Amino acid sequence: WRDAVADDAGRQVVEVEGDVVVPVETASNKAEFAARTIRPKIQRLLTRFLKPLGSVEPTKKSLRLDIAGDVDLQDPAATVAKMKVDHGVGASPLLVGGYGAARGLLELFVQEKLHGYGEGRREPSVRGTSMLAAYLHFGQISPVEIALAVQQSAAPPADREAFLDELIVRRELAMNFAYFHPRYDEYEGLPAWARKTLAAHAGEERVDVYTTAQLEEARTHDAYWNAAQNEMLRTGFMHNSMRMYWGKKILEWKKSPQEAFADALYLNNKYFLCGRDPASYANVGWLFGLHDRPWATRKIFGTVRYMNAEGLKRKFDMDAYVQMVAGLTTPGKPKISRRESARG
């Protein structure tokens, strides 16, 4: 998208990297292997970039410029109706757009959720996260503003550090990945070791196999997975702990890792409000070994990290999570056809 703007502008285009704290190429001049390799590089630069922006008077004010376009700001509904988007995906009952909403969530997070974030963020039945990912994706709030608010809060240092590591180090690792990997949204963009081990185990029998439609409609035998999918369908959001389990099960339930990658990316980009973002592309890649290391060998997964329902039950209150999702309202059903079960 950015290249298209620069190519079509007919003049010099300067990009200001307001979507990160540390500019991507300043942080590193290569694709980083994992959070541990980029973390010290970013941390060395934080004092330079993590500070408030001063108010600057523009050389040429833009409010009275006569700019013609194809978007009618007086009638947003009519404009959206003409856009080439999937109108079968309804509006989220959970979030509304705009800087005001983002700032309100930030203040709520700092005042009520940041204390205890280090552990509280992991529980999917409690919305202990900032809920700001979608606002970051659409550029409605700056990561610098978020980081400064957290940094200046009275929350315990461990909680502040845990959040800032997610917001800056891990999010900007994803920016690094998308910037330096032209195939960031393709299976072939995964690490060689991960593709090799998945290929070696691709022919192993799957106990359960589901079609794309069955996954999209949350029609599997797994109540926890169905709850995660329904949370995404109904709100455009899914708790991070469930996102990991959700994606790992897709890998387990498809006939090949390539099909699993395609389905995970399709659902991610269609329903998540923070989809089609460097962070979400990196999240999908992580399911298949990106920014991770080899683990013990397992059927289908090879040495790619594995997750199961028993692990969820040990760590989280899964009954509470299922009940929470059951109480959510559905903004609109996806327009997809139903197919016969493919469970093996």
Concise synopsis of the structure shown:
With 344 residues, the protein is an all-alpha fold.
Model description:
This protein is an all-alpha fold and 344 residues long. The chain is 49% helix and 0% strand. It has 18 helices and no strands. It has helices at residues 2-8, 24-27, 35-43, 46-49, 76-82, 99-113, 117-120, 133-137, 143-151, 157-180, 192-200, 212-216, 223-235, 240-253, 257-271, 278-287, 309-315, 318-326. Helix 3 crosses helix 10 (157-180), helix 13 (223-235) packs across helix 18 (318-326) and helix 14 (240-253) runs antiparallel to helix 15 (257-271). The longest helix is centred in the middle third of the chain and has 24 residues, at 157-180. It is globular, with a radius of gyration of 21 Å. The model is unreliable at 332-344 (pLDDT under 50).
Shape: globular
Residue-averaged pLDDT: 92
Alpha plus pi helix count: 18
User: Could you state the order of secondary-structure elements as H and E?
Assistant: HHHHHHHHHHHHHHHHHH
> How would a crystallographer describe the biggest sheet?
none
Radius of gyration computed on alpha carbons: 21 Å
